[in-house]
Amino acid sequence: IGKVVAETDAILIADCITAAGALPLWTDEWHVDVVGAGSQKALMLPPGLACVSVSEKAWAHVDQIDAPCFYLDLKAYRKSLAKDDTPYTGPVSLIRGLKVSIDMINAIGVETIWQRCALLAKATRTAAEVIGMQVFSKQPSDSVTGLLYPDGVDDGFRTRLRSKYGASIAGGQNELKGKACRISHLGYVDPLETIGLIAAMEYTLADMGADVEIGAGVTEAVKVLRDWQ
Questions:
Q1: How far apart are CA 165 and CA 198, in angstroms?
Q2: Which terminus of the chain is less hemmed in, N or C, by CB atoms within 10 Å?
Q3: For the residues of 129-165, what is the DSSP string, one character each?
Q4: Which CATH code fits 110-225?
Q5: Quick one: DSSP state of residue 181?
Q6: Which residues belong to CATH 3.40.640.10 in the chain?
Q7: What digits encode the pLDDT tens for the residues 139-159?
Q8: Residue 209 buriedness (CB in 10 A; 0-12 / 13-18 / 19+)
Q9: pLDDT-based confidence at 65, cuts 50/70/90?
């Protein structure tokens, strides 16, 4: 897509909220002109900070914009960044926190983090299939896994998982509300957390009357996570 768009006057804008810092992202090589990301995902911070990268091609388009804007005025930000400043009062604590997050990512290596994220996702999906939870997407992302509940199980699964076993996961949205759950693999997540979550999910399914072999999912997950680096 990027190569095609690069040969035109159009710009390629990518929503990378759940991708930046978790999945491979090569903005220059892929000819992605604008990338948008948020602090609350793989950057491991509270919400409130937007991160945007802009290519030279995209800047040329920005310079032609004469519509009024305020919330994300890229021209104003470019002018202030030249002086190591922001055009408006910024979320200082989040910006300082971002520095710590970036240091952590660099210490590990972003490509190693991509590999770890993929491994956590693979372990979760493999375990889920064994314990009767179907992976929702035909092309699942490595940053988050959506799972469908087995027959006879509803969103009380998440409530019990949290109240009895201390594990909190997100639920389905819109038409999937009460029918599915979502498990994140991005940010500060390690194999022990993932294995513990899978064990808690097995217990919860059993508590709710599902036909599940305790330990089956965990067994498959630890095999996958043996390749952790």
A1: 11
A2: C
A3: HHTT-EES-SS--SSEEEEEPPTT--THHHHHHHHHH
A4: 3.90.1150.10
A5: E
A6: 2-108
A7: 999 999 999 999 999 999 999
A8: exposed
A9: confident
Q: What is the mean pLDDT of residues 17-35?
A: 96
What would the pLDDT profile of 181-222 be if each residue is shown by its tens digit? 999 999 999 999 999 999 999 999 999 999 999 999 999 999
Q: Is pLDDT above 80 for 71? A: no
Helix axes 92-108, 110-130, angle to 10 degrees: 80
Question: pTM value?
Answer: 0.91
* Amino acid (one-letter) located at 69: C
How far is Cα 217 from Cα 199, in angstroms, rounded to an integer? Answer: 7
Intra-chain end-to-end CA distance of the chain, in Å:
32
Q: Which of 131, 126, 119 is nearest to 186 (CA)?
A: 119
Q: How far, in Å, CA of 81 to CA of 75, rounded?
A: 10
Sheet holding 134-135, edge to edge: 134-135, 144-148, 180-184, 170-171
What is the C-alpha to C-alpha distance for residues 133 and 149, in angstroms, rounded to an integer?
A: 5
Around Cβ 152, how many Cβ atoms within 10 Å? 10
List where CATH 3.90.1150.10 sits in the chain: 110-225
**DSSP tag of 228:** -
Q: What is the CATH number assigned to the segment(s) 2-108?
A: 3.40.640.10
Calculate the alpha carbon distances from 174 to 139, 181, 200, 216 in Å.
20, 12, 26, 31
Cβ-Cβ contacts under 8 Å for 139 (sequence gap 6 or more): none
